[in-house]
Amino acid sequence: MCDQTFLAITFGPCDSCSENRPLMNLYIKTEPINYCSLCMEIMACQGLASGETLKSLKAESETLRKKLEEERKKLHDVELEKVAEKAEALGELNMKTRRTLKGHGNKVLCMDWCKDKRRIVSSSQDGKVIVWDAFTTNKEHAVTMPTTWVMACAYAPSGCAIACGGLDNKCSVYPLSLDKDENLAAKKKSVAMHTNYLSGCTFTNSDMQILTSSGDGTSALWDVESGQLLQSFHGHSADVLTLDLAPSETGNTFVSGGSDKKANVWDLRSGQNVQSFDTHDSDINCVKYYPSGDAFASASDDSTCRLFDLRADREVSIYSKDSIMFGAASVDFSLSGRLLFAGYNDYTINVWDVLKGTRVAILFGHENRVSSLRVSPDGTAFCSGSWDNTLRIWA
Amino acid sequence: MAQTNSYSQSSNGVADESPNMLVYRKMEDVIAHMQDETNGIPVRTVKSFLSKIPSVFSGSDIVQWMIKNLNIDDQVEALHLGTLMAAHGYFFPISDHVLTLKDDGTFYRFQTPYFWPSNCWEPENTDYAVYLCKRTMQNKARLELADYEAESLARLQRAFARKWEFIFMQAEAQAKVDKKRDKIERKILDSQERAFWDVHRPVPGCVNTTEADIKKSSRMKQPHKTRKSVYGLQNDIRSHSPAHAPAPEVKEPTEEEMRHQIQHWQAQLDRHRLNMSKVAESLLSYTEQYVEYDPFFTSPETSNPWISDDITIWELETSKEPGQLRVKRWGFGINEVLKDPVGREQFLKFLESEFSSENLRFWLAVQEVKKRPIREVPTRVQEIWQEFLAPGAPSAINVDSKSYDKTTQNVKDPGRYAFEDAQEHIYKLMKSDSYSRFLRSTFYQELLQAKKKVNNWLRRPDVFILTTLTHSSLVHRYHTDSQQSGPSLPH
Lengths: 395, 491
Hints:
The complex is a heterodimer.
Chain A: E1 10-13, E2 20-28, E3 31-36, H1 37-74, H2 80-83, E4 97-102, E5 108-113, E6 119-124, E7 128-133, E8 138-144, E9 152-155, E10 161-165, E11 170-175, E12 189-193, E13 198-203, E14 209-214, E15 218-223, E16 229-234, E17 240-245, E18 253-258, E19 263-267, E20 273-277, E21 284-289, E22 295-300, E23 305-309, E24 314-319, E25 328-333, E26 339-344, E27 349-353, E28 359-363, E29 370-375, E30 382-386, E31 390-394
Antiparallel strand pairs in A: 1-2, 2-3, 4-31, 5-6, 6-7, 7-8, 9-10, 10-11, 11-12, 13-14, 14-15, 15-16, 17-18, 18-19, 19-20, 21-22, 22-23, 23-24, 25-26, 26-27, 27-28, 29-30, 30-31
Chain B: H1 19-34, E1 44-48, E2 51-58, H2 59-69, H3 75-87, E3 91-93, E4 107-110, H4 125-136, H5 147-159, H6 164-179, H7 183-200, H8 214-220, H9 255-270, H10 276-290, H11 305-308, H12 312-318, H13 324-330, H14 334-339, H15 341-353, H16 358-371, H17 377-389, H18 401-412, H19 420-440, H20 442-459, H21 461-484
Antiparallel strand pairs in B: 1-2, 2-4, 3-4
């Protein structure tokens, strides 16, 4: 007699085909299943097959991606810097701090200009949102949010409201009243609801709609009056850290950047990701459109800023230096698009010649990270907000 | 500007390379070069009075080395970068709690890699208490507590009142171990330990470089890497069992996600791309065209308000009369005239004088609809349909049949984009037809020239006083002209 070990096999109805057969007892992820041997084999094959399908899909995807890279490369017949050699060299730029706005009790995380070219809204880690007349440096309004780390704020195009949000996962709109004594918090309106922190918000060309980006990996368009979600944008595989609306009158697109190192261009109407750029080595902290709307710049934790052109469908320039080791937090263009102002985590602001790719100035002054930087609507100055609790206006 | 990025090539799948790590690695690379035997900073022992100061180099040594080896333009930049590296604790002044770099004979020492920030230190207050307590047990003048440290110690004593006996014992034990060390070694280790605490418990008023951006902090919390205990007080998670928190699982993409991804790549491949030479030319010509509007290059006509404190330029812009520069800009492209409210007004006025304003009014109305609250959209869409597209519409516009059919359908279930196709068609029409006529018209040309004439004439000093009155009457006339034919835009 052979020494054989017998499997204890039960006999009964198969979970799959319901036929009475000898069953094999298995546990799949702690769930017991009892299949007959035939169904067991079919399941194994299917498993293999779907594994195969997934594998072949992955391979197909990778092939297409490589092909896309090749196609993009083919049209790279010249470097931007080379063509830019014929552009006039920039003279000495004499930029200084013209105003310092003091009043926040903690890190300034975000700021935005009003269309009137002189007012600014800024938000801070301590939950305070302040509206300033930057020209006189007077504080005009202040709101205390019920949350700390207010990472996003925006001024409405009409100048009559502001939006802000952060760790509360919401974006709220506050109408600004002329009555200085009025309690702004009383009229607060919750518009956007995300499932993670709010990283960015902007009004789209009117007071009635807001576009938001969130740590939950999505961006969304909301109707302010009703709080209704008009469109959501899915595609980032990690936190969305920044967004910028295309400057065109006819355009319906915006670009977003995330912790997944990608910059995605979206169609507002369809919610589709229409273009994607994947060359950064770390989080993209800020994206800004070039004034013509044909390109955009990005600032990343890999300490570089880059220019991506939408028509060429590729990265066309990289702004970096070995001595710049800290991440870039925020960027914006001067009105003509010739200068790129970038604020870094090493407390400095570097000014780049967009066309020639060289650094034209380095601005010292802040005593901690520069978290936010925007050029004023008429291009006469730019404002930088910093973890040193202040904002500075440079011109 | 190509840059050899030797730091993060393996970024795919290396979840460890959080943004902070990237910076630490770069700084550590510099430190490694600084410590190079041949080309690094010369580290020496300096004789001072009755003792020796081991293992130091001067601030100027650092600055000189940086300028020579790091592609840095000037001393200011070197000092800034050096101060940052000191603030992160990679080297430190041996006689100061404040971590800055000075370009003089001040002595600095390198920090031991054990204390580097890349080891994800998060020391607890109990450790700090042990440290301060230990310091008070040592009879060296150089180890006397600074004011802020004494204050911290007092606070910690109150906070840990119940544990204090235990903390005291730990401090004693540490002090004992320290005493056994070689004198020179002790000097170095003491200073390095102090520098570590200067980073994690900085002097009040100094930047705490260990503060993290909350958006990134969730990724930086790597429990299997974080070190919390300097003196072995806490259950240092690292030294615990190897079965620590696993790295976050990378989710396998589903079949559907992969198909979607493939679709995306396909769509990208089908896209029409321009070659670089065309794109570069376009970028160049754009900046050239707008350089005279860029206040960073061309000073505004009156002055930059932020520099001169004179806000004339802003007042001029809000007035109804557009300056010559502004009118010129409308000629750059139809978007410029549509973007500027005064431009829109002038364009509309011109078209009305030619009885061809329906297109522009339609376009403006549709833009308006997209900006209204969603609640108002259905009504507005109906109004626009009636005014511009319905059979017998008072301001009938000409749209191609395809767009017309689509729009007819859309209007039945009106959304914000009901008129998208029609609007696109009308935009193209305006661009090629109405807009070019506008630019060629005497109306526009006069706007472009008229101000110029007046301005130049006014600038002559002999004419100035005489013309003050005339100028205001001209202005007045222009005002009334533009107020006459107030168009009623659908609101």
